[in-house]
Amino acid sequence: MVQVNNLFKTYKKGFAPALSGVNLTIQKGDFFGLLGPNGAGKTTLISIICGLSPANIGTAYMNETDILRYPEKIKKYYGLVPQDIALYPSLTAEENLRFFGRMYGIPGNTIKSEVDFWLPKMGLSNHRHKKINEYSTGMKRRVNLIAGILHKPSIIILDEPTVGVDVQSRVLILETLKEINSKGTTVIYTSHYLEEAEDLCNRIAIIDKGRIIKEGEPAQLIAQENPCSNLEDLFIKLTGKELRD
Ligand SMILES: Nc1ncnc2c1ncn2[C@@H]1O[C@H](COP(=O)(O)OP(=O)(O)OP(=O)(O)O)[C@@H](O)[C@H]1O
Ligand SMILES: [Mg+2]
């Protein structure tokens, strides 16, 4: 479970606060979508939840552990699939995954069996010895995903995991996340694809300008806000058409 209360965050060079009093509760087993326009504060909130960035004010807990005080203690609970690809370009897919496996403290033979399971599942068996800088974007995203879930965390946090990938890669990534979630893993993800989020998430929060402006079950939120027929309608109604920086 993840719980944040009254989080405020201003970057040193930032003019406006990136987060302005965010409250959020994510329950065990949720498939939770954090949705918002560019610059809304999604990545900032994720980096605080993962203990990678401090907040100015507020509290944040993961499985009852105080994230802001003990960021090292929560690392065992979650796997992060970051917005920017976090792989070593000059290493092969297999070398990258072995590196991440060792970093998570997974025993060598378990790393091997996990890598042998995940590379074919992600359609990469023929490319395991190819360097990441020779991969297409979709292939990199698939390896980025494996790197975040290799150690079987109880919470998986993904920042725009399907951005820039083809339909085939997207379907595979989303089906994998659905499958993992159906076995009890909590999934927290950000996306700009609202149809995708409406289909996948049991709960969503819409964030804009550092504030959560709506939170709940997608179908209920859509039904409450007449005349909205889908999540995209609701999103536009709540956040408007003005472009963000
Ligand atoms: N390192 C930084 N230094 C200064 N300002 C930052 C930094 N990172 C983010 N910001 C600012 O904080 C705000 C929130 O940014 P954030 O990256 O969290 O948004 P986001 O919702 O993830 O956007 P996107 O959809 O574009 O990924 C923005 O105004 C952004 O310009
Ligand atoms: Mg972001």
* Name of the CATH architecture of the largest domain: 3-Layer(aba) Sandwich
- In whole angstroms, the N-to-C terminal distance is 32 Å
User: What value does the average pLDDT take?
Assistant: 95
Which cofactor or ligand species appear?
adenosine-5'-triphosphate, magnesium ion
CATH superfamily name of the largest domain? P-loop containing nucleotide triphosphate hydrolases
Reading the helices and strands in chain order gives EEEHEEEHHHEHEHEEHH
Q: In percent terms, what proportion of residues is strand?
A: 15-25%
Quaternary form: single chain
The CATH class label of the largest domain is Alpha Beta
Question: What does this entry show, briefly?
Answer:
The protein has helices at residues 42-49, 93-103, 108-121, 137-149, 167-182, 194-200, 218-224, 231-239; strands at residues 2-9, 19-26, 31-35, 57-62, 65-66, 78-81, 155-159, 186-190, 203-208, 211-216. It has 245 residues and is an alpha/beta fold.
Tell me about this structure.
There is one protein chain. Helix 2 (93-103) packs across helix 3. Strand 4 and strand 5 form a beta hairpin. The strands form 2 sheets. A 6-stranded mixed sheet has the order 6-7-8-3-9-10, with helices on both faces. A 4-stranded antiparallel sheet has the order 2-1-4-5. The protein is built from 8 helices and 10 strands. It starts with a strand and ends in a 6-residue tail after the last helix. The model has no long low-confidence stretch (mean pLDDT 95). The radius of gyration is 18 Å and the shape is globular. It has 2 domains: 1-77 and 155-245, 3-Layer(aba) Sandwich (Rossmann fold), CATH 3.40.50; 84-152, no CATH class. The longest helix has 16 residues, at 167-182. The chain has 245 residues and is α/β, with parallel strands linked by helices. The structure holds adenosine-5'-triphosphate and magnesium ion. Adenosine-5'-triphosphate binds next to helix 1.
